[in-house]
Amino acid sequence: MKLKLTLLLLTVVSSLALNAQKLENSTLWKISGNGLDKPSYLFGTIHITCDATIEADVQKALDETSQVVLEIDMDDPTMQTKMMGGMYMKDGKTIKDFVNEEDYTAIDSLFIKNMGMPIKLLQNVKPFFIGAMLYPKMLDCPMQSFEMSLMKVAKAQNEEILGLETVEEQLQVFDAIPYEEQIKDLVKMAKDNLKSDKAKFAEMLKIYDSEDISSLADLIKNDDSSIAAYEDELLIKRNKNWIPKISEFSKEQPTFYGVGAGHLGGEFGVINLLRQAGYTVTAVQ
């Protein structure tokens, strides 16, 4: 009897914990309380999409805030140079150091077919960034970006654009993931000619359009890619580092935050971490 009661209690507690992590379907959240004079807003973006139109509720949040903060300061004129400097593998490593001839040929064919160039022109670039060059090919439409749309509004309103982390900090994430792990995903992309990646991305877009950020967090957590195993580096550590910066920015002035929607949900998502820090974070629906 005691065992049954214990199991029942564990089931109830587990159920409550899961329900507590399930968030309302919204990509826009208001941050208030904890000493803030005026609310700030948190918006979950998707970095590439077919339609990055700013909807009315997001525009209203932009109107009520006085600066825009993205993951990095995309308005920084030195950003491109910094990104280029951090894209290359260290110690003279190249793609050929990590794959056999068959896999190298598959990657080369993929790039010739999709990018119109041989892989030898990029062979010393970190595998993750080589794969990222193919992301626009996941779409059956001209690529748009929410970050670019948000920057356009900020500039029209003569507002400053800042970042939660520096370009160098973001690039360090990919230094923490071994090249051997990064290359596995590139080989997978090549061997099925982006078929599974396109299917995954289509599913991600569908979930994003439904604004179900909890399901989006689950999708990312359960991803079977090699790089997804480094969730701590890619998401959790970064989310935790952002909280004091969000707190600082928000206390100075009402701020609009635009970060990848995958950072919002889950136990270590930005919403839950902000709530743990004492803020009231509510969905704007």
From TrEMBL:
Top-level taxon in the UniProt lineage: Bacteria
Keyword Signal attributed: yes
Signal peptide: 1-20
A Pfam family recorded for this sequence: TraB_PrgY_gumN
InterPro entries: TraB/PrgY/GumN_fam, YbaP-like
Keyword terms: Signal
Protein name: TraB/GumN family protein
Source species: Seonamhaeicola marinus
Lineage: Bacteria, Pseudomonadati, Bacteroidota, Flavobacteriia, Flavobacteriales
